[in-house]
Amino acid sequence: MADPKAPTSKSAERESEVFSAYVFFNEALDFTMAEVLDAYEEDYPGLPRFKDVIPPQHAHLSTAETATVVLLADHPAVPSVHLFWAANNRDWNMDGLQERSGRLFPEAAEAVRTNQGYISISAGGEPGLATRFIAARIVTCLAAVFAGLPVATAIYWSTGGLICSPQHWISAAKDAAEDKIPTFQWVAFDRTSLPATSDLPAQVSVESYGMAPFNGHEVCFTYAPQSLRTVGGHTASMVWMLLQAGHQFGDGDTVGLEGSDVKHRIRLAPEGPLAAVNTWVVLHPASPVDEMEIFGERQGRPPPPEDVDKYTHRGDARYLGHLVRAAMATPTAGQRLS
Questions:
Q1: Torsion of Cα atoms, 289 then 290 then 294 then 299, to 10°
Q2: What is the C-alpha separation between 308 and 310, in angstroms, rounded?
Q3: What is the spatial distance between Cα 2 and Cα 5, in angstroms, rounded to a whole number?
Q4: How far, rounded to the nearest angstrom, does the alpha carbon of residue 101 sit from its chain's CA centroid?
């Protein structure tokens, strides 16, 4: 019999994806989970605690061996966390990862290639922005405990396909602990440039990869006659608006972005021939894309969400924190806070 909770589409599959952070080391690491959890509780005093560790937390562990640990949280809104570690016994394919990661971490490929062991930390969560953020934050902050060690060289974030430096990862954990989305550590931004022709100026497209695990959507700022820096910044702003501030867009809306007096058209490309997952496509007024031919008639804004009165901070930076605090205060099986 089919699992009624199984994802029914690629977008839903991504929104159910497990968050994993891999921390790489340049030499074997010996530790106990008691030491790790003490550091976690000291660095992130406001986050949930873990009530059980399997095996016992005082067992002596080493990345020179292969082993698994399970952490069980003391709060029903927090998922169990799985840790796995091993010596460097797998081939890490860096194709595409260096290009994604190199802008912030030029040494990414070398840090991974020369590693002498790693720890992966993983947790899932039911669909819904609050539960997904809680799971990602737990993984991020536990990984940051290891990232702060002198032997840590890099962190790979699976759902964004990004490799980060230890210092950037520790900064991401600090943001997440304060109910902020660490955009550039959780979400990659893939870039495409088209040279100018006799008919058109140079064009730039930037597409997010890593937002869908939080809300089932990505953002694509397509064929804009602007610089990569500008378009990349606009795409990151859209991710922030959707995840941090809870903005809700309608198909055909226009949006003004910081630093620009241009109104951009937003179209929804549902999962299918146009997009691998549901994607908000942002069109510059001078984009050569034939909007109506490709996307059809504008469908407008969906009905107001059921939580429109409950979550009064929708649309500003407090929205995500409000949502997370609500989930932690009144966890209910099957409740979706998004």
A1: 110
A2: 6
A3: 9
A4: 14
Residue whose entry in the numeric block shows the structure tokens 């997370």: 324
Per-residue pLDDT at 7: 67
Q: Which residues of the chain have pLDDT under 50?
A: 1-2, 309, 332-335
Contacts of residue 103, Cβ cutoff 8 Å, sequence gap at least 6: none
The pLDDT, as a whole number, for residue 85 is 87
How far is 180 from 244, CA to CA, in rounded Å?
Answer: 7
CA distances (Å), origin 40, targets 148, 174, 205, 284, 303: 11, 12, 39, 44, 42
Tokens read off for 158 = 């699976």
pTM over 0.85: yes
Distance CA 93, CA 156 (A): 12
Whole-angstrom Cα distance, residue 307 to residue 55? 41
3-state secondary structure the chain: CCCCCCCCCHHHHHHCCCEEEEEEECCCCEECHHHHHHHHHHHCCCCCCEEEEECCCCCCEECCCCEEEEEEECCCCCCCEEEEEECCCCCCCCCCHHHHHCCCCCCHHHHHHCCCCEEEEEECCCCCHHHHHHHHHHHHHHHHHHHCCCCEEEEEECCCCEEECHHHHHHHHHHHHCCCCCHHHHCEEEEEEECCCCCCCCEEEEEEECCHHHHCEEEEEEEECCCHHHHHHHHHHHHHHHHCCCCCCCECCEEECCCCCCEEEEEEECCCCCCCCEEEEEECCCCCCCHHHHHCCCCECCCCCCCCCCCCCCCCCCHHHHHHHHHHHCCCCCCCCC
Using alpha carbons only, give the angle 76, 78, 81 rounded to the nearest 5 degrees: 125
CA distance 153 to 23: 8
Longest CA pairwise span in the chain (Å):
69
